[in-house]
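Hey, resending since the last one bounced:
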Amino acid sequence: MTTVNFVCNGEPIESAVLDGESLLTVLRERLQLRSAKDGCAPQGQCGCCTVLIDGEPRVACVTPITRVAGRTVTTIEGLDPTTRTELADRFCDAGATQCGFCTPGIIMRIAPLYEQARCERVALDRALAAHLCRCTGWQTIVEAVVAERADAPRRDLDAAATRATLETGSPQIVGPDVALGAAGFADDRAPTEALVAVPRPPGSPLASGSSPTDAVEAAGIEFVVASSLVEARVSAGKTQGRRTTLKPRPPFAVPPAPDGGVAWGTHWVEPAYLEPDASWCEPGGTAASPVANGGAFGGKVDGIAARAARELADRYGRAVRVVFSREDVVRLGPKRPPIAGTAVLDGSTVRLDIVAAGPIDIANADRYGLDVDANVEVRPLLGPPVARLRAPWAESAVLIEAALDAASFERAGRLDGLGAAVLLDNCVESPHGAFAGVALDHSGSSVRSVHVRVAAGDPLDDIVLRSYCIGATHMALGWMTSEGITVDPETGEVHDLTIRSFGVVRPKDMPEVVVDIVDDPRPPIPHASDAVFAAVAAACLAGKLVP
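The structure tokens again:
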């Protein structure tokens, strides 16, 4: 153990630390400053743990605690109150935070620029390049910081939270505190005295000195349990993230397109939610939800963290935290099932032929008066698990819409009511009844802007609905043009374990998104942004933007 002295948020700190311990673990585990989030430690690639060291933004997870000896560390709790409050209000006003996991780190990066009035777009893009946000699509973050702030419209934040909950399928909070990291994530609320359990990477030996009883099975996998997160990860032999030089490719061979139709294949795609799976539980209690303020795009619906926390708490007779690293999420978390498929319009029927690595749902074409005849073969692959993630019908909807474009199908004459109201270049209707139309302004593979029109019933809060539509656009563009992880076809091993290797669209590459919300007299409709996700993806395939 080593003793380190530094100043944190104006208070002198003297802390005994382990060899190699990071500033992030000291802040979170020893000082209980949970605004600094662990999204990828120790990769240093997501920006969620950004703090100020002597006034300069630094990523805490790759900063050895010994490096801050005698220096000043500032977390969001110690930020100038005026700056903190104004940025939190701005982010809320613009819909620039959804789950809120990445936002404290972004605010810490932006704060020095904001206080010095240097938030021009180029400087902001450069600052945001150090961060990853999966939810918002970046545009609202930029708007929150650079736009002239008028008097904020009076909003019903309860109604806003209801719309956010409808979009994610999980309870959501909307308010300025979310931007400051206070959304109530599972690992932020874990008892300080809890044991800590982390997954044991396949084939890794326990570190020297670990007791054999430290390795236990729960929820079908092996965990290492210790008194602290640092000790658990050291004992488990935590796998360090890596990125392969091999390009991802669709695991199924894409067949030739039928005459007048389209063909398409997808990669293994990582949902890339920022908060790694985590839970905690008291003996005999209910495990903390891993989706406390975010739906994780469906990626945590069947997750094992909560089950493991309950099993381990009962076994040890005391509270247990289960904490996944980013590498654990990539290896163990579900992906969208890769597919290869074709689609063609044959008279009044769209014919689909799809091979998929897992079950997918089939969208309909009732809005056009067309039938869908789908032949789907499920052919499991070696690789990470797959699941019905966000909009499990999106793959078939993309093929259907692209096939109609290939056939020069006249949509306008087939649509009336809300369908016609949202029609741009295509129109997707979700299983819940939301409509989304999309038009892309692009030149070659470069998209300059995206125009989205959506009908979601009563929007409840236009700012939140717009934010989710922009986020869905960002996710769809990445899915179709840049995202994918490389998986060894012989062993199923994932070769891309760093968060930057997923291919998520960066801020500087995100086109402008214009969102029109249609006046829709129906009650609030859930998952409206899923229709946007599918419609944007369909427009990409129809526009031949897919690599």
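The chain has four domains: 2-78, 81-184, 187-250+277-323, 391-542.

Sorry for the duplicate.
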